Amino acid sequence: MLHAFYVDLLKDRVMAWTILILLAALYVLICLLLPIWSELVPGITSLLILLATEILVYLLHRDLAQEQPAADSEEYTSMIANIDDVGQKLSDLAAFLKRERGKVEEAEATVMRLRSEQSELEPMVTAQRELVDAILAVHTKRIASRAWKEYVLTFITGVVTSLLAGALFESFWR
User: Fold this and answer.
1) pLDDT value at 162 more than 70
2) Within 10 A of 5 (CB to CB), how many other CB atoms are there?
3) Helix 13-33 vs helix 40-66: angle between axes, to the nearest 10 degrees?
């Protein structure tokens, strides 16, 4: 319990230095206010103050060394590794997006090229369509006129054949 009190007390550096200054002032007061001619009492007092100072410095140093335990450093190492991993993934994502942007730009260029070709070919296609329609109309008229000619020729051939058959029939029955 007393150790926990010292640890809590020594965590603050200002408090530690204040305690050291108060101990030094106590030593000066003891040396000045007590008219002791013996060298033994100031020596023992000096030794106690020096021992207390060393203990305070040791506890302060140990507490500062314990402020960053190994688990925190492992956690920081893990976090740094995670950050590096995320950085790598982001750079991979950036490269992927750059490739995809290139593909999209190529596709847009192809679409623009095809649209320009369409605008160039559209008048020719329209003209060709009109020409094809005219050719089909002429062909339809020819077929229609040929059909009438064929109908007339067939009728005349039928009449001539009937007359010829009638004449042959009369010649054989007589």
Assistant:
1) yes
2) 9
3) 180
